[in-house]
Amino acid sequence: MIPTDGDIARDTVPTPVEGVAGRWSADIPEAWRVMYAFGGVTMALALRTAQAELGRDDLELVSAQATYCQAVPVGPVAMAAEVLRSGRKGAQVEVRLWSTDDPAGAVRPDLVVAVVFGSHDASSPHRLLGVAFPDDAPGPEDARRRLAGATEGTPFDEIPYHHQTDWRQALGHSPIDPTFEAGEDPRAVSWFRFNRPPLRVDGTWEPATLAVPGDVLAPAVVEGLGRQQGWFFVITLQLSMQWFAPMRGDFICQQTRAHHAGDGFATGVAELWSEDRTLVAIATQSALLQPLKVG
Predict the structure, then answer these.
(1) Averaged over 92-107, what is the pLDDT?
(2) How far apart, in whole angstroms, are the C-alpha atoms of residue 164 and residue 183?
(3) Which CATH topology does 8-118 take?
(4) Is it the case that residue 150 has pLDDT exceeding 90?
């Protein structure tokens, strides 16, 4: 039976390991499995570990870079966090996350995340927005639902992660369509929401959880390459995030563009917009293209 009880806010809360400074543990449930734990989920857990280790409510997430050295399966994980600097208006924290049955054991770099925190200055006069909301895309009510059509015979059958989120394609071909050819514009627009939104007491999303919709390079790569050359997985190698504004509302808009694919790798950028057209974050992703055999 496919689990449908994923709660991203609950499932990314780290627990301190008694007697080991800077050490934390968690258990990633089956709900967040694709092949392994979804990369955006492990990054979100590392980010919340950095927040917990830093312990400063006056600072917010500014940027982070996650490097995926080893696939992390669902189940028990450990995190080692180190505050590199904690200054008056900013701080840096490094987190290493790894799969383990012994959270007090040796540190492994399955996932390494460098995090920058800062104090946002709303009085600063310097403002620039060099990207635009995708006005050519329909809203979430008119977009194509991922699970509305049959997925039988594709590598996406029975993936638990897909049942914890509502993902709707607004522009681009369906990623599970095996027939379409390479396109001229490697761009995709989609709408994303958690079945159980990660709301804080002020009504905004827990910012660390934006790493989950930020991990979305695949639809743009598929749009550019098509399916004529076969199925492939887009496996994250690095995922960088920058936060600009609190996320409010139900759906988040993902405008994703693949900048390059070749020699087994792909890279691109995703803009994350709230429904009121506020740019809340940007994600830059580098990935491995892993061919798959179907049937």
Answers:
(1) 92
(2) 30
(3) Thiol Ester Dehydrase; Chain A (3.10.129)
(4) no
